[in-house]
Write a structure and sequence with these properties.
The protein is mostly helical. The chain is 65% helix and 1% strand. It is built from 13 helices and 2 strands. A two-stranded antiparallel sheet has the order 1-2.
Length: 287
């Protein structure tokens, strides 16, 4: 927990420094400063490790997530307008959308049959709905802005900060009547969620992002949607290689090879191995 506390201190210091500077770019700078620190801290408590350590990690996540969301909420309410649907044009969006939707929900028909209600993925996830939208890891302001048309938006916003299987299951049990139809889920995904994850991938890969093909950008966006962009530790060595070696060279074969190398992390989970293979094939395909 001592290491997690230092992460939170770093976040708060970043917030205070940038808030003091002000200026038209303050809110964007704050989000950029907070994002990698929060991602690193959350990665430490959500990584799949030994069973003995998993319980401790989940408990750490339950304490960490509300604190980080409080900082993010401050940046949204004090320094910037509430987040919401974004105007964007990205050529790789259709490929990225198809890839993520395929692995998150399978198909619209499967979504309608299985996923219209809230669910609790394993680990330190929160109540999740739509196309893999984790309400537990979002601020109330973000949820209200992105799901403002939903009749139960306030109940969805109440899921903010609720993480871990026990807390998530309790919340879902109390809100079993909430439903999100596929058309609405897809609209939020395309207008808000996907642009945010594309931006996260672009920031993570730096200038090398612009040297990659559109399909490579799409594959990396899907990768980040599933794994995040923490660069810390041995679990993330392939992501560092993509950032430092493959992307700056515009080398899609290198990029695809590093994504395939990540399969080492899930030797007994075919679904995640197959997802990495699918992303690697998209990365190396012609755009």
């Amino acid at each position: 927990m001592a290491r997690l506390s230092r992460h939170l201190v770093a976040v708060l210091l970043s917030a205070l420094v940038i808030a003091g500077c002000g200026g038209p770019d303050a809110s964007g700078s704050l989000q950029a400063a907070i994002a990698p620190v929060v991602a690193d801290a959350q990665a430490e408590v959500t990584a799949v490790v030994t069973p003995a350590a998993e319980t401790a990690q989940l408990r750490a996540a339950e304490a960490l997530v509300p604190a980080t969301l409080a900082v993010q909420a401050m940046s949204q309410e004090v320094l910037s307008p509430s987040p919401g649907p974004r105007e964007w044009t990205w050529g790789g969006a259709p490929v990225a959308a198809d890839l993520i939707i395929r692995w998150e929900i399978g198909s619209p028909a499967r979504y309608t049959r299985l996923y219209q209600g809230l669910i609790c993925p394993p680990g330190a996830s929160g109540p999740t709905g739509g196309v893999g939208y984790d309400f537990g890891h979002q601020t109330p302001a973000a949820i209200r802005a992105e799901w403002h048309e939903h009749p139960d938006v306030e109940r969805l916003a109440a899921a903010s900060g609720i993480v871990g299987e026990a807390a998530c299951n309790a919340f879902v049990a109390q809100h079993r009547d909430i439903r999100i139809d596929y058309a609405y889920a897809e609209r939020v995904f395309l207008s808000s969620t996907l642009p945010a994850y594309q931006l996260a991938a672009e920031r993570a890969l730096g200038e090398g992002w612009h040297r990659l093909t559109l399909n490579a950008q799409a594959g990396n966006t899907s990768l980040g949607y599933n794994r995040g962009w923490s660069m810390r530790g041995d679990r993330n060595r392939e992501k560092r290689a993509i950032r430092d070696v493959c992307a700056p060279a515009g080398d899609v074969r290198c990029n695809a090879a590093e994504i395939r190398a990540m399969k080492r992390l899930w030797p007994h989970i075919p679904g995640l191995q197959n997802r990495r293979e699918d992303e690697a094939r998209v990365v190396e395909s012609a755009s």
